[in-house]
Amino acid sequence: MMIHVIQKPRWHRVSLTRTLLGIVWLLALLGPPTLILRTRSGWIEQLQSPEAQAKWDTFREDMKQQAGREGPVQRKVPKSAEPPLLVWLRDYLWLAIGAWALFSTVLCFFTSVLVMGVVGDATSPKSDLP
To answer: How many of the other CB atoms lie within 10 Å of CB of 108?
Structure first.
């Protein structure tokens, strides 16, 4: 009994690979920013609470006390009067999302080039070899 292996045409594999890479790119591009935007208001609400501000003020005071000490580690007093995550979520979130879009797109592009090269090699006819 002989088993025949049915190979799909090269264009089918390449098309399927491109589709999958596009889906992965969209998930990588949209997933993390969507999660951050959904949870942003809750985080801001928590960080603007008096308890969070008191913790930040206590931390800054502790850093002021440690800044003048001699030793291997020199502490710097944070300049911001607000917790850094609050400032980031409120003032710099769109910059971070833009940077995420740029870097994830570049990473996905180069990964796609590598994957398409492998898929192209794996499906190329053997008669092309010298």
So the answer is: 19
* pLDDT tens-place string over residues 9-60: 666 777 888 899 999 999 999 999 999 999 999 999 999 999 999 999 999 9
Reported as a single tens digit per residue, the pLDDT across 74-114 is 778 888 899 999 999 999 999 999 999 999 999 999 999 99
- Specify the long-range contacts of residues 105-109, CB closer than 8 Å, at least 24 apart: 105/25, 105/29, 107/28, 108/21, 108/24, 108/25, 108/28, 108/29
The pair of three-digit structure tokens given for residue 5, joined into one six-digit string: 């292996």
Q: Write down the domain spans for the chain.
A: 26-121
